[in-house]
Amino acid sequence: MKKNTFYLLVIFLLYSFINFNFIKPTDFSACSFISSACTVDLTNPITGLKVDSVQNIIYGKTPAATGFKDVLYEKDRCDGLSNQPTTCETYSDSLRYNVFFPDSINNQRISYSSCGLPVIIMFHGGSFFECSSLNNRGITYLCRELSKRGFIVFNVEYRRGVLPDNRSSPNPIFNFVSAQQLLALYRASQDARGAIRTIIYKQRVNDNGGRFQIDTSSIFIGGISAGSLIAMNAAYYEFQYQNDQGYAGVSSVLGDIDQDFYIGDTTIEYLPKIRGVLDMWGGMSIDISKKNNPRSFFNNNNYFPPLIAFQGLNDNIFPVDTASIYYSFDSSASKKTNFNVERNCLVSGTSLSLDTRRDTADAYGIGAEVLFRIFNYKGVSVEVYIDCDMAHGLDDDGVNFKSDFGTGYNNQDSVYSYIAGRTNTFFIAILKNIDDSLGRSRFVECRNNRVKCNISDNAACSYSVNDENNYTCDDYFNP
Q1: Cα–Cα distance between 299 and 262 in angstroms, integer?
Q2: pTM (whole model) above 0.90
Q3: Phi and psi for 53 in degrees, rounded to 5?
Q4: Burial class (CB in 10 A: 0-12, 13-18, 19+), 221
Q5: Do residues 455 and 434 touch, judged by C-beta distance below 8 A?
Q6: CATH node for 33-477
Q7: How far is CA 424 from CA 119, 218, 264, 297, 345, in A?
Q8: What are the DSSP E strand ranges found in 264-306?
Q9: pLDDT tens, residue by residue, 80-95
């Protein structure tokens, strides 16, 4: 071999080695996900996809904006100091969220330079108790499962603190609702709206370190239990009067539902950007005067995004169908707390006082079954999953696990993964504008096996699509 030829060969091999080992192949583009979404089975996580996260991003204005307050009740603490008096905090840096995002696929870094991915903004459960948290295992696991299927997922913290009235109301299934519970729900709903606006704002100014980009025209929101309440409040309570009717005029002491406490201020209009909602064993509270026509509560809505909902027949916290809601009428003589009145940590006024009539319903609760009928009436896409054995939330793992939605799974993780698969698949159908052609939409104790963008019915149900509106858990228990 000639000397020059040898040198050329060495240079070529060295060049090839450098390119192969140090120059990455073209990065996988985030644009590719949506364009090819209909070819991917999202029942399971996307093969080869790795998820990364960013933790503890603050969305409250710091220092706190004027009027921002957060109650810390003596009897609802997680610091072991239950003998401390009730206080009113003003630390807005407790408003944080974690982000889970697709980072690489088959060891190729995902490029966000040209496209953002659709986003799901999630809110955890916990009945608004102080000890609940965005770090609860269930919500963290679910957020990762949702992100493993190609979405950027935000897990949002919100203000908590509540004193529940544990006395049974005239409705034998539910307890009275205290003034403290209504205030907690309203504060959390203010935070949820502020978090959504902040997420949009941070994308606009590219304040995410360049690690991910979201498509602000493709925003989905959802939650578990209490988190589902505030997600649906953000999506469907479009007007202040709906909040006042649903929550006893709490705005008189906490101000408007849209407050300027957050980095994303009130000039950001998020409602047109909400493409769909995930409801996990939640519900909505509406004006008692709408009892005989619940859908009329939403007659003036300009926006009404599609819904996917999961709930148990035996839910004793939020009704799967309907329930009259009774507010705490007074304080029991044997209890220190007056559940009918709250004076702590208000923005304006001196107290919130509820209706004192013990036997008169104050609001009306609607769950997944009623929502299914409302959405169908309005011609808006909906998928509802009913478990005939489930109470409020998934069972503890074990041999008696029942809350499986007809899948046959016997543990929470598997059911959460199933819910993630169904949710991501439904949301992709919305993005691809085929959600109104999916056929079967009500799944009573039966598994939905639809994959990709198929619109044919392939559910493992014992009843036909034509019978789905009439099939009940009674039919399941007594075939």
Answers
A1: 30
A2: yes
A3: -145, 155
A4: buried
A5: yes
A6: 3.40.50.1820
A7: 11, 13, 27, 29, 39
A8: 274-280, 284-287
A9: 666 788 899 998 999 9
